[in-house]
Amino acid sequence: ETGVTQTPRHLVMGMTNKKSLKCEQHLGHNAMYWYKQSAKKPLELMFVYSLEERVENNSVPSRFSPECPNSSHLFLHLHTLQPEDSALYLCASSQDLRGRGDTDTQYFGPGTRLTVL
Amino acid sequence: GQQVMQIPQYQHVQEGEDFTTYCNSSTTLSNIQWYKQRPGGHPVFLIQLVKSGEVKKQKRLTFQFGEAKKNSSLHITATQTTDVGTYFCTYSGAGSYQLTFGKGTKLSVIP
Q: How far does Cα A1 stand from its chain's mean position?
């Protein structure tokens, strides 16, 4: 599946580094999402963008900063992370945000495995 | 608040045996979706159920949505090693686009 791509696939960084995760969707979708998946917790929604506007920010620490320059690209800028931020970061996209009885299917990218030393 | 429990958390089966995972909610769900995540992979959409009592089949997989829309199940007939992975049920509240993922059921298939 190449509908949603993420780079890099693996990243190791120190707590003082600044790095960015990139997500690109080739599906013509209008909504994009960042999720965090760590070993001991369920998949956690971090940010939601619809038509390049942020519509959801689930109390994510400011050391995570999203950017959505257009409907096909989504970035997650990282700075001064903590070891507990080590996790798999997944990007997803869906056609739209509906909020009715049916929910748009979300298509996930392969994720970036992040390790913070 | 709305709580959805997925059971069991882990399941080990012999290849060829059947497998079932259940999602139970304390409140009525507007819809439920099922995803599968292979080891080292990412969640992949399987199915969405919207109607009360809905049953959908995909080859050896059977998905059900309860009459009261408070529970759902995924049943795999005659498991194969390719079925290995974690199966998640997800749901969104009425009027919400946000999917909430459960902890999932991790399936291991012994050849």
A: 18
| Token reading at A102 | 């049916």
A53 contact B CB<8A: no
Closest chain B CA to residue A113:
B40
Residue with tokens 């707590």: A15
Query: Residue B81 in 3-state DSSP?
Result: helix
Measured from the Cβ of residue B56, the count of other Cβ atoms closer than 10 Å reads 15
In tens, the pLDDT along B53-101 reads 999 999 999 999 999 999 999 999 999 999 999 999 998 766 666 778 8
CA distance A32 to A24: 9
**Closest CB from B31, B42, B95 relative to A90:** B42
